[in-house]
Amino acid sequence: MNQLQNFINGHYVNPINNNWIDNICPANGQVYGKIPNSDQNDVQEAYTAAANAFPIWSKTTIEERSKILLKISDLLEANLDRFAKAESLDNGKPISLATTVDIPRAASNFRFFGNAITQFASESHESVGHNAINYTLRQPIGIVGCISPWNLPLYLFTWKIAPALAAGNCVVAKPSEITPVTAYLLGNICNEAGLPKGVLNIIHGLGATTGQAIVAYPQIKAISFTGGTKTGAQIAAVAAPLFKKLSLELGGKNPNIIFGDCDYDLMLETTVRSSFANQGQICLCGSRIFVEASIYDRFKTDFIAKVKALKIGDPSDKNTRIGALVSKAHLEKVKQYIALSKEEQATVLCGGNEVTVPHLENGFYLEPTVIEVTTNDCRLNQEEIFGPVVTLMPFKTETEALNLANQVPYGLSATLWTNNLKRTMRLSSELQTGIVWVNTWMMRDLRTPFGGTKASGVGREGGFEALRFFTEPKNVCIQY
Ligand code: NDP
Question: Does the annotation count 249 as an active-site position?
């Protein structure tokens, strides 16, 4: 049985209280490890290590910081198979996805920010007529907290840590207690890459205790959080009176708007992916599919046929397309939403049932599910399900499609399928989301601002936005 430890000051250590939490394998429902159930005393230790490391790390040259981050990236790539296997086992995601998306992206996060910091510049302003020059110092904030969810564990963990470190901060980080293993493995990689002790500290435990202790720790000056909207609100309530800088990347209920003039085959293929990749457990998945009435019946038939053909099974099998959901509790939550279909006059067109996978009978498997709804007002269309469930609904006009897309509390991303340029420009401007994909989905360029509007979050990460978040600007004005 794996027994994970906290990574504090460059060493693996047990939690001070010696309390442990079971780590469960989603593929078979069995306990396969123990993780620290850390509390505020461990956060205190992590903070102290980070605070001791800060004076040196914050003054380390950009070239040196960059070199270490690039080395971490190289080492992750060199250990791709080991990390991908660990991610798939811990999360239930297909090994093909962990190998081609999760771990390569974690390596890219370190590479990208290792390079980006060498290009990051600040402004200067000449005050003409006053004989003065202003320049902006962008200094590291100090000790920052990074808290990440279970759906893309190492991918999102490193998306925060890499820019925080690149900018010269020291970090206290907590991965989701549901998927802690790859974050645990990262400690050794950081040591091997020469990251000085205490610069990155990784502690494991429950959100309500360990996570809360990080957020409430007065000297931790900024919190970068990705997770559910409810948790985001709790974090904001704790952090606001302490005047912390906050970046909140929260839930989504993303529209996928399909017009009759799109490239049909590409749209169909991509929509299967944007609906069910990672068992639908990606904040960017298009969970509300709106289809122009002229192609609605054709789409419905073709889409259902493709969804039914998706191979559900053992996440470690490289041919599996749909693995296990992350936990029993999450499976039950998703099933409750499917059960809502009856009271909301919606029709389950395919899926909806649990699946028993031979030799993995206690795993958390669910058929990819397509539900036809009659209104956008129902809970199925208004609440984040975050599982392998999408809804379908026809629309007649562009205005109707836009209203349906926007009439939701969330505003993370939208996907648009059309070859009409004017319509693309109109809708891209009017959609109330942080990201719009046109004729593609989840194509990520790490330089772009990433984040949501409305209940999907506050602030942007990605590119220089992340480096701006993780630095404190200071204006210096010199009169000469
Ligand atoms: P949660 O909000 O439950 O948890 C996210 C992280 O916060 C976990 O590490 C969790 O710990 C921790 N946490 C929980 N409560 C607190 C608290 N009171 N104080 C501090 N930390 C806390 O989200 P999930 O892990 O369930 O992830 C799924 C959600 O994440 C979905 O809503 C999804 O849309 C969103 N998400 C958003 C993305 C975006 O970029 N906008 C990207 C990916 C996911 P623990 O797990 O131990 O409880």
Answer: yes
